[in-house]
């Protein structure tokens, strides 16, 4: 027997039979009876001795290549990720001043988190000079260091550290200046603290962001793709509803848990960078209690928890019976990436910040629907195909492919426009694209998108048409298998693309380097 359960109704009928006798329904809901009477009457559900499972070999064909690509991307050496880097100073590095200045002004490429950012003065022997105090400058990009009066002639160094409010990255460095004449110039001993703990390595920062982005993409996509793709595609084979619904609910729970777990890893990495020699717990207290990153992190986790609670009350098989909740879940799906955009490169723009954040939010939402949508199809739709006859697969895929392709095409249009805008503000010119780490990583991302576009076009333009025209069971089985293989390859490739995106977020924009 097959059971279709929407949490309130239960239908039973013989395996493989879609024709519903009047006494088979436990209930008297006439709209349900009317809806069921319109279902196609073909042998859609596979019998126990039916065709073999689809796509079993697709999972293993690309896994070795993917692991190799991930290893190459993570292990590739890169320069330090200094986002709130020193842009200029007064006095300038290596300047020779006839008289001692009353203060030093430092200007950074991104706004500063005051709770962490500071600067200190050291003499040529590497000893800290008392009486120097750092404080805020004219705007969030500046820091002032008040110097003690009557500094004797000699060479001094200014040790600075910064924490960007835009992306939460830390940086540190020092520069020297001389009071007196050229004869007073000395080689300075670097301040001892510059050799201390500089925080987690860049590969760990990249990995933590990758995990957070994977969880975000899966969480954002689960409800929209279920609502507009998977659920309508399963209408002709509604007997499979209970099993598919359970899998999607399980996937949603795992996605939210993964998103929260990835965010926790990102928080620990961030706190380790801020805590330095003071320890992880000190870094956690500072991050959560005193920084903008910590505030947005708490908001991010709060949105995940609210979304998870709302999913528990959703009517999965009959979603529009709780229309208000379904619409609210769609709204939350678009809102959850906002904390990411508020702590990204877009938030560091000195002009047009709101526009940059809006484009970044659209970019993340669109990419999440496409990337996470592939995961939803792999979990919700592909296993269901293995329980269907070729005729059933044809009917389901004839609904699913055009629906998902429409969403993917809209997402690609948004990704293209917002991506061009992001490249314009973060790269600026072709020279920066070719010569900087950020530009080279962006090129790698674009190259990886080429096979993804080809696979998407293959499913929409070839597989979809062949399935619609297929009449023989063997033909439908073959092209259904091609669909599963292409979706599996896409899902694996997007994991690599997200790793590259995580690397991008851990690098300073090209405009700050050239």
The main sheet comes to: 4 strands, antiparallel
Distance between the termini: 68 Å
User: What is the percent of helical residues?
Assistant: 55-70%
Structural class: alpha+beta
What characteristic shape results from the CA principal axes? elongated
Structure summarized in a few sentences:
With 514 residues, this protein is an alpha+beta fold. Helices cover 55% and strands 11% of the residues. Helix 7 (292-312) packs antiparallel against helix 8.
Q: Would you give an account of this structure?
A:
By secondary structure, the protein is α+β, with helices and mostly antiparallel strands. The protein folds into three domains: 2-31, no CATH class; 86-195, Immunoglobulin-like (Sandwich); 200-512. The chain is built from 14 helices and ten strands. The chain has a four-stranded antiparallel sheet with strand order 3-5-8-7, with no helix packed on it. A four-stranded mixed sheet has the order 4-10-9-6, with no helix packed on it. A hairpin with a 4-residue loop joins strand 1 (2-5) and strand 2 (10-13). Helix 5 runs antiparallel to helix 7. The chain is elongated and about 90 Å long. Mean pLDDT is 80; it is low at 1-44 and 47-82.
Main traits of this protein?
single chain; 514 residues; alpha+beta; four-stranded antiparallel sheet; four-stranded mixed sheet; disordered N terminus
In terms of topology, how is this protein built?
Elements: E1 2-5, E2 10-13, H1 30-37, H2 58-61, H3 63-75, E3 86-90, E4 96-97, E5 103-108, E6 118-122, E7 133-136, E8 142-146, E9 154-163, E10 170-179, H4 202-233, H5 241-275, H6 280-290, H7 292-312, H8 323-335, H9 338-341, H10 353-385, H11 390-426, H12 430-435, H13 437-469, H14 473-505
Parallel strand pairs: 4-10
Antiparallel strand pairs: 1-2, 3-5, 5-8, 6-9, 7-8, 9-10
């Amino acid at each position: 027997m097959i059971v279709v359960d929407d949490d309130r109704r239960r239908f039973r009928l013989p395996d493989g039979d879609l024709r519903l006798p009047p006494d088979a329904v436990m209930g008297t809901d006439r709209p349900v009876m009317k809806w069921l009477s319109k279902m196609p009457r073909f042998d859609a559900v596979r019998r126990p001795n039916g065709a073999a499972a689809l796509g079993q070999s697709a999972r293993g064909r690309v896994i070795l290549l993917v692991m190799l690509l991930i290893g190459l991307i993570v292990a590739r050496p890169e320069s330090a990720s200094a986002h709130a880097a020193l842009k200029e100073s007064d006095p300038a590095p290596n300047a020779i001043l006839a008289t001692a200045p009353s203060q030093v002004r430092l200007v950074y490429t991104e706004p500063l988190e005051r709770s962490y950012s500071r600067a200190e003065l050291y003499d040529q022997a590497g000893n800290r000079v008392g009486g120097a105090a750092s404080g805020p400058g004219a705007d969030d990009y500046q820091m002032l260091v008040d110097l003690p009066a009557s500094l004797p002639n000699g060479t001094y160094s200014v040790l600075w550290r910064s924490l960007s409010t835009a992306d939460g990255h830390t940086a540190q460095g020092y520069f020297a200046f001389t009071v007196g004449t050229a004869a007073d110039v000395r080689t300075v001993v670097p301040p001892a603290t510059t050799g201390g703990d500089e925080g987690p390595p860049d590969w760990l920062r990249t990995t933590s962001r990758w995990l957070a982005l994977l969880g975000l993409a899966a969480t954002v996509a689960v409800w929209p793709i279920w609502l507009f793709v998977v659920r309508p595609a399963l209408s002709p084979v509604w007997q499979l509803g209970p099993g598919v619904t359970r899998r999607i609910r399980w996937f949603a729970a795992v996605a939210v848990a993964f998103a929260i777990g990835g965010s926790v890893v990102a928080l620990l990495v961030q706190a380790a960078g801020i805590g330095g020699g003071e320890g992880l717990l000190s870094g956690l207290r500072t991050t959560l209690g005193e920084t903008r990153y910590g505030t947005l992190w708490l908001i991010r986790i709060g949105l995940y928890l609210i979304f998870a609670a709302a999913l528990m009350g959703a009517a999965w098989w009959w979603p529009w019976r709780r229309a208000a909740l379904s619409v609210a879940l769609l709204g939350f799906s678009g809102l959850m990436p906002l904390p990411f955009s508020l702590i990204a490169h877009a938030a560091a723009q000195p002009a047009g910040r709101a526009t940059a954040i809006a484009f970044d939010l659209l970019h993340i939402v669109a990419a999440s629907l496409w990337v996470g949508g592939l995961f939803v199809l792999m979990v919700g739709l592909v296993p269901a195909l293995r329980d269907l006859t070729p005729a059933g697969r044809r009917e389901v895929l004839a609904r699913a492919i055009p629906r998902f392709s429409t969403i993917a095409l809209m997402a690609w249009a948004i990704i293209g426009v917002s991506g061009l805008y992001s490249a314009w503000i973060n790269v600026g010119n072709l020279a920066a694209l070719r010569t900087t780490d950020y530009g080279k990583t962006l090129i790698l991302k674009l190259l990886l998108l080429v096979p993804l576009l080809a696979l998407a076009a293959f499913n929409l333009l070839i597989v979809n048409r062949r399935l619609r025209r297929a009449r023989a069971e063997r033909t439908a089985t073959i092209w259904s298998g091609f669909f599963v293989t292409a979706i599996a390859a896409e899902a694996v490739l997007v994991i690599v693309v997200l790793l590259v995106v995580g690397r991008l977020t851990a690098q300073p924009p090209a405009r700050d380097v050239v």
